[in-house]
Amino acid sequence: MRAQRATPALLRLNLRRDRIKLPAWVLGIAVMTMYFGNALKLAYPTEQDIANVASFANSPAAIMMSGPGYGMDNPTLEAFLANQYALYLMVAAALMNILLTVRHTRLEEEGGRTELILAGVVGRNAPLTAAMLTALVANTALVVAGTLALAGTGFDTAGSLLLLTGFAALGLVFAAITALMCQVTEHARAATGLAAAVLGAAFLIRGIGDLTAEHGSALSWLSPIAWSQQTRVFVDPRWWPLTLSIGFAGAALVGAYVLVGRRDVGAGLVAPRLGAAEASAALSHPFTMALRLQRGAIIGWAVGLSVAGLFYGAFTESIADAFGDLPDDILVIMGGATGNLVDGYLGLMGFTMAFLVSCFAIVSVRRLHSEEQAGRADPVLATKTSRAGWMGSGVAAAAASSIVLLGLSGAATGLGAALVTGDPGYVVTLKLAYLAHTPAVLVVAAVAALLFGLAPRAFGAVWILPVFGYLIGTFGPILQLPDWLGDLSPLGHIPQMPLESFTATPVIALLLVAATAVAGGLAAFRRRDITAT
To answer: What is the reported pTM?
Structure first.
């Protein structure tokens, strides 16, 4: 018990520090679950509407990107939600647990705060136990909030409870996996990357396994994602697959506890490689340095978006047949007429990719904030590098990387479409169409830069911009929301090519807004104090 001493105090500290982040994650996932339920009711009001769109769910690409297809032969609204949308909410729950665990374990060690805490009357394992209990509290809150939200929309209460428990079970699995990764490496970023790589592998294994046989194969069961999906929620509910999640999480956590006692505080089991004795001359410029520091993240996003683009493109040939009988309300976001379904779909995918790249741009600009908080900005700014040069280089690296990601995702989607249609012209067309979203993404990055320079503590508010824009742009036409709401989002001003024609006016206007916001951020950063914790 001495190793667990002071665990309750650390748990209270964790919950106090996460009093905004955790409720935001939990309520965000719960509200999105409720939102999808309500949106599906509006989008597919009759059984025939559900049957029409569910036929699309049985295609290989849909199975790969959604679920094993339980209930899709005779689909209900509940089964369609669980099969088509639950996977993405599960991934969000897993990410919540990955970030939570890294924040309260490895990041604390990296910052030297764990060593100070352990110098007091605190057990060696107390920080890890407190982090796991924090994850348990968060996942329990997710089950309660999500079940109430979904059941409140009219979904079956028992099914809602099973669905949300599946989210929480996957979250606990990745909390334990992340705890294990935090023992391997001594850097928070590497631990996050390793845990995210495991999540990506789980997604891929589940998809391939589900493609191999109807409703999944033996390979599917090697993925923790499948354990939550194999509950057959809303179709033939069963709870026992979740015992695999709990068992696996427990085993991984035992491994993490064993490894905690076999390494020094602040160190990982795998020692980092020594760097070169002298840095390359190319790294002497803050822009190239910023690119070098973000190299891993850029590569990861490029691979992820390219793979997603290939799958999105592979849907192209099935769109016209599967969506031909959609209600008029849904046709509005898919081209407005049956003859425009393919172009409407590809335009919507471009809009989705622009949203994802906007998220990357925010994360990329946020690195400036992390560098400042870690105290690494000070020694750089003590050289001849100016504040404007340092910050401007970071923002420029985020902008350049975002443009590359838009081009890659567009080309990948075009390649997927070309492979199934036999028309190679899609590669160039969609690459240009996706690049047309560049000004909107730059505005998001520029607003992030403005907040970093002006009010870094409010940086998180920038997430409202892309999330609001995506929801309004995707579901606004269905909900018949006023057009002025869509005009508040930079993502809503770019034509969705190839359905719509390119127009230069919004591009120029958005570029001017982006330039103004960046200039404001640079000016504010030059005048405020550098802070560090």
So the answer is: 0.79
